[in-house]
Amino acid sequence: MADLTVKLGNLILKNPVMTASGTFGYGMEYHNFFDISRLGAVVVKGIRMEVSDGNPTPRVAEVTGGMINAIGLQGPGVDKFLHDEHYMPFLRKVGATTIVNIWGKSLEEYGEVAAAMDSESDGISALEINISCPNVKEGGAAFGTDIKLAQSVVAMVRKNTKLPIITKLSPNVTNIGDFACAAVDAGSDMVSLINTLGAMAIDIETRRPKIANVCGGLSGACVKPVAIKMVYDVAKRVKVPIIGMGGIMNAADAIEFLIAGASAIAVGTANFINPMATIEIIDGINEYLDRHNIKSVSEIINSVRL
Amino acid sequence: MKFGTILKNENFKSDYYEIVFYHPEIAAAARAGQFVHVQIDEISSRMLRRPFSIHDTDIEKGTVTVVYKVVGDGTKRLSGKKVGECCDLLSALGNSYSDVAPDEYPIIIDGGYGAAATYILAKNSPVKGSFLFGARGERDVILTEKYQALNWDVKIATNDGSVGHQGLVTDLIAKVIEENPGKKFKFFACGPHPMLIALTKILMQQNLDGEISLDHVMCCGIGACFACVVKVNADNEQKWRYARSCSEGPVFNVKEVYIGD
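Structure tokens for the assembled complex are given below, as produced in the milestone run.
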């Protein structure tokens, strides 16, 4: 049994396997399949101040090797998240290492959400700032694709919380490394990447877009090579820990991200197909390390041989 | 147990197939209206799961039957599966129809392969009721003989008039009510979205009780992704909210369903 512990700055995780925000609900659904406290961290679906309805349906469409989604960040709002038994109190009760993904429709709202989480931070290990959801018109992509706005969001969150901050980066930019550096300069303790890639699919019989929002975000196995390169690029630019994600379907995919430069990884679309994906990935990483006689997972992080 | 072994996978009419899985746990657990989420491609990264209503179960034989129509890549691939092959099955998912009470007269209204979803309900009902079935034409008239075999009163409507009444299945409601004076009616339905919304409006207008199986393009099937939402009434300014059809449904009482727009 290898040592799977990873250290992300001051945040120590029992293993490098996390869930990608938006693909794991608020943990409860998957707790029916396994003990979610076994995960490195549960990253919950994005939370803003108010209740959020999300987009009209259809919200998803399958494409070759993946899917396009435009859920639109449906969510319960801060108050319900912090106090309703289905959300944070549940995660606290089962002892899940919890990272809260936050978003807002304005700079100020990002600050308010961060402050609210900070004031009741028992059980919250970190905040992940969502500046890159491609599916909401306000907030989301607007902040993630403008470097100055991205920086001001991070600075605003930094001002309002002592919790570790992860900035989730959009791949829909010319140079993701510049955004990673900007986030770190503004006070982000680490970065996560990639969010989904802007995408579209059309039904040729009706000539209508396959999802109601017209465009959405691409995820699943097909995005992995793009994500690996971005992690590799960002690892050369920043010293802070990187959480890598994008098309991780199994342990081999996860290990590839670690080698490319990620200190931890997040599993997204795979959860929809196999609810046990994260647990199987933890076991698979351990098996790989044992097979290669590697004592600690930290030895393979950022270890690509050129 | 994850896998269900295929015991049968046969084309029984037009594009319609019946597939039988051996999976005793699901057979024992499944209730009317629930669904099974099938991983069709053995390589999980290639295709999302597909949800199918559970058509029938046999607890003694440990079997779960699904009736499906080939409509796209997933069902096409499923139709090519051979006896003896396995599929990873997640089930029994979703909520279920209420049991029919002995003092109720059940009326099932289905459109197309919606008829697959209500069969267990009819089979377990203590009262023989009416089964109203609607389809575009003869090639989509399926499963009616199975309801006939249960001694239910079967009425059919087709858009083209090739079988039964020419028109909509909801046109048949008035006649059934007329034929059964003084009964306490309870409606159960599954079918295309517009049919279900039309039915909901009729039932609400006439103050009749009913449950409909409502869903939308599904992804995780367990309530985590929020893809398959439908509008339900809510105590807020806009009077509705999105509910996950996979975990809060697929069965909703007509009183819950938002019909505002």
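Chain B touches chain A through 30 residues (CB under 8 Å). Chain B has a mean pLDDT of 95. Further analysis is deferred to the final report.
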